[in-house]
Amino acid sequence: MFVYSECSVSRLLKIHSCIFNVNMYVVANRQEKAMSDLEVDKNLSNASGIIRQAAENPAKRPDMRSFFDPATFTVSHVVRDPSSKACAIIDSVLDFDPASGRTMNTSSRALIDYAKSESLEVQWLLETHAHADHLSAAPLLQAELGGQLAIGREIIRVQEVFGKIFNAGTEFQRDGSQFDQLFQDGDRFKIGNLEATVLHVPGHTPACLAYVIGDAVFPGDTLFMPDYGTARCDFPGGDARTLYRSIRRLTQLPDEARMFMCHDYKAPGRDDYAWETTVGAQRNGNIHAREGVTEDEFVKMRNERDATLAMPKLILPSVQVNMRGGKLPPAEDNGVQYLKIPVNML
Ligand SMILES: [Fe+2]
């Protein structure tokens, strides 16, 4: 089975161990503090409150339309306020052929056509994290549909690490300024009349966010479908122990909350792609992280599995573009935009 989202970057980690160890230490410390405050986790309580309020009021529950990209196994979600034309688009895809270096907009065109045909008002373009398996189409969507582009505030740390790896010049600002909004844990926002909040769920990457919108939760790559498990943790700044704690936090949300995945790869024995489940189904049945799996058991499983996985096909173009908010690097003096391949780094 093709499992590009979980491939190994162990060599990269060794080369950059100093940077990453510092990052992991910071992530672990911050997360440990968050976990010690679990009993007074106000941000999680607020998120649960939004879900419960939506469970009692259909007007607070988003209408969903999801688009699956078979080339990258990515699901982009259009999250609609049922009582207005307002919507958000989560995790869009810019098609990219690495052999020719050509971008295509088939996937983003489907999103744009849908939004236009429904006369939607796109208020937000939400990224759950800087993806390593596909390029974001956020700039294309923003040009045609508008909306504020948002990601987690920790994207700054991702920009620092990958800015070094790609030897990006001073033109590349490591301050998140490529995005309109940098969210942090507990931030709240609205999509029309829908209530929404943000939970910082590091582990897969340091900047991962889960969005809670009405009764719907978007965990990014923190969780896959219950029968497929969880995402790899060996990217720069990733950490299995931190991911476990983020998952434990998410699975304290109300069981009835709908959960929409960012990817699906068809678990063994399942013939169809799927991306909708519930918090309860994850808590009770996720094959990697269901209730009862200890932190040490999870960390051992995740680290052993990550060590066997291959490199994502599009990691180099994806990260180079996504750290820039989905924009390609600036054109060189001949007017051509180039993507770099660091040799013998990964
Ligand atoms: Fe990812």
From TrEMBL:
Any one GO biological process: hydrogen sulfide metabolic process
CDD domains per record: POD-like_MBL-fold
Residues annotated as domain Metallo-beta-lactamase: 73-263
InterPro entries: Metallo-B-lactamas, Mito_Persulfide_Diox, POD-like_MBL-fold, RibonucZ/Hydroxyglut_hydro
Keywords, alphabetical: Hydrolase, Metal-binding
Chain segments annotated as coiled-coil in the UniProt record: none
GO molecular function: hydrolase activity; metal ion binding; sulfur dioxygenase activity
Keyword match Hydrolase: yes
Family annotation (Gene3D superfamilies): Ribonuclease Z/Hydroxyacylglutathione hydrolase-like (3.60.15.10)
Keyword Oxidoreductase: no
SUPFAM superfamilies: Metallo-hydrolase/oxidoreductase
UniProt protein name: Glyoxylase-like metal-dependent hydrolase (Beta-lactamase superfamily II)
Annotated organism of origin: Rhizobium paranaense
